Amino acid sequence: MPTNFDFSSLSYSQKVAIYGQTALYLGLGAGISFGIYMMFKRYQTCGDIPDSVIKSHKKFYGIVMDVSDGDTIRVYHTPLIQWFNPPPQKKRGISNFTISVRLSAVDAPEVSHFGKPAQPLSKEAKDYLASQILGKRVSIKPLSKDQYSRLVATVSYRQMLVFKKNAAHEMLKQGLGQLYRGGGAQYDGEKDLLESLEANAKRAKRGVWGLKKGDYESPAEYKRKHKG
After folding, report:
1. Among 187, 144, 186, which Cα is nearest to 46's?
2. C-alpha closest to that of 205 among 167, 165, 176
3. 159-178: per-residue pLDDT in tens?
4. Which pLDDT band, with edges at 50, 70 and 90, does 84 fall under?
5. pLDDT of residue 113
6. Which of 6, 14, 18, 153 is deepest in the core (most CB within 10 A)?
7. Any residues with CB less than 8 A from the CB of 149 and at least 6 apart, and which?
């Protein structure tokens, strides 16, 4: 462009075209920069996950570092640029660098904590979930956050690198959890399927459904009884 170029001499339509091109280039540059930033950005904890990611249910990936019980895990987020980086070996301070994830739709028997007794099959539920996903890379589809600042999500994983599994589905199939029907329940559009999985486990008397009458109460009933 000549040094003596007079922008004011342009017509209105020419000015609009220049403004439009400039805005387009700036937008493309910002979009590319943000995309590169997100490739490097690692969510340390649930608090680092933007609300926009949760509202859009944008999937991300991570490695399961701990299984707290039959429906809660801790995940070390691995963004694309860090895909092959191994997670820390340490467990000390794990809450500072992992995301607490609650499996959507399933309510597993409560383990013993804060001096409260464990529910029947709570250890079996925890052990089974650990056998499926502990140390594995999982897909996390965020749905919401709960009152305990956990990420409620659909958790999927691969078995033998081929078969895709849904962790909540597997827990319901085994009868090691029941469908969560409390406040803020998230079903990811699969409520009918989830109810069917639970019903099948009931009919087959698998897991908690095979316990003698009176030996089992729902996790929700247990929590109400031991509240406070």
Report:
1. 144
2. 176
3. 877 889 999 999 999 999 99
4. confident
5. 82
6. 153
7. 46, 47, 100
Q: How far is CA 134 from CA 79, 82, 86, 124, 183, in A?
A: 19, 19, 14, 14, 28
Which amino acid makes up residue 60?
F
- Closest CA relative to residue 113, chosen from 105, 121, 104, 122: 122
User: What radius of gyration, in Å, describes the C-alpha atoms of the chain?
Assistant: 24
Q: Which amino acid is at 28?
A: L
- Higher pLDDT: 23 or 129? It is 129
DSSP β-bridge partners for residue 158: 164
Tokens 């009868």 belong to residue: 175
Q: Kindly list the catalytic residues.
A: 102, 110, 150
Confidence of residue 81 (pLDDT cuts 50, 70, 90): confident
CA pair distance 105, 185, nearest whole angstrom: 6
Mean pLDDT, the chain, whole residue set:
87
Q: Where are the beta strands (DSSP E) in the chain?
A: 60-69, 72-77, 99-103, 106-107, 137-145, 151-159, 163-166, 178-179
Give dist(CA 49, CA 158) in Å, integer: 24
Q: CB under 8 Å, gap of 24 or more: what pairs does 75-82 form?
A: 75/99, 75/101, 75/138, 75/140, 77/42, 77/43, 77/44, 78/42, 78/137, 79/38, 79/39, 79/40, 79/41, 79/42, 80/39, 81/39, 81/40, 82/40, 82/42
pLDDT at 33 over 90: no
C-alpha span between 25 and 31 (Å, rounded): 10
